[in-house]
């Protein structure tokens, strides 16, 4: 017998973790950061509190992002982070171990899948299921994927961009790119360093991306600007500069072009009947990267297809995990047989 709240879905993202609890919705949204005391190997902080420590910790404390490119890079730290989040959500009900469904990129290897499953089990799950991110994103965006109709989803997360065509509850064709919000930040850091001889941190780059970043320059956004603080590489002293949307557009060209090419590649291998459906249904964009200013407009221009950004795009994958728990029978798995499954 399952009690209310014993089924949870986790969007285990490179940048942030979202937890969906059955019957309650999104109950947790925290950065994927863990602060650890190196001398004792003790966890000091997890989530937003740990994120505030990035780049500001003394020598014996290190703030770690244990996921890279959408998969686990540091198993032990990921397990500690998951344990903290599951306990935070479940509270006293942890006596009844929850069933947990976790999202993985479509390009994850068997080893990476097993690492995600084992970390979830070790963190306190009774059963661990895996579901591919495009499936969860489509469910969370309200797309009916169980019909014999083609739907295209572009999920741009922190570490990966998953692009897939879905039909009959499974993935027909897809690609997973190790390009996402983190690569956007890195591109901005490189650009500011190259063009302004200014060294900025990850958090500053993220602020630039959110406030003045754009994938499509128009007369209305060309001159938007913000002040940025960093360290002058020539003098070594703190310095302020202004960066404009047009400069951000130039900085972001490489990662954005990679995503556009990925979308075109999937469209090229899509069966004709499903391609006809996509002309009618358009492309659904999810994930935090889809909120980059002008991203939907650029994709429309490059593909000549209607593009829609899902409502509450950041939480689509997490909400989709909740629907996947309820609609397990609707997900038949992709052509490679990757349906939500218990690996342990």
Describe the structure.
The protein is of the alpha+beta class. The chain folds into 3 domains: 7-135 and 319-342, Nucleotidyltransferase, domain 5 (2-Layer Sandwich); 143-179 and 264-313, ATPase, nucleotide binding domain (Nucleotidyltransferase, domain 5, 2-Layer Sandwich); 181-253, ATPase, substrate binding domain, subdomain 4 (Actin, Chain A, domain 4, Alpha-Beta Complex), CATH 3.90.640.10. 35% of the residues lie in helices and 28% in strands. It has helices at residues 48-51, 75-90, 110-122, 133-140, 181-196, 202-212, 245-251, 253-268, 272-281, 295-303, 316-326; strands at residues 7-12, 16-21, 25-31, 34-37, 42-46, 61-64, 67-68, 71-72, 99-104, 127-132, 151-156, 161-167, 170-177, 198-199, 225-232, 238-244, 283-286, 307-309, 341-342. The chain has a 6-stranded mixed β-sheet with strand order 3-2-1-9-10-19, with helices on both faces. Helix 5 (181-196) crosses helix 6 and helix 5 (181-196) packs across helix 7. The longest helix is centred in the N-terminal third of the chain and has 16 residues, at 75-90. It is flat, with a radius of gyration of 20 Å. The two termini are 20 Å apart. The relative contact order is 0.16. Mean pLDDT is 87; it is low at 1-5 and 329-344.
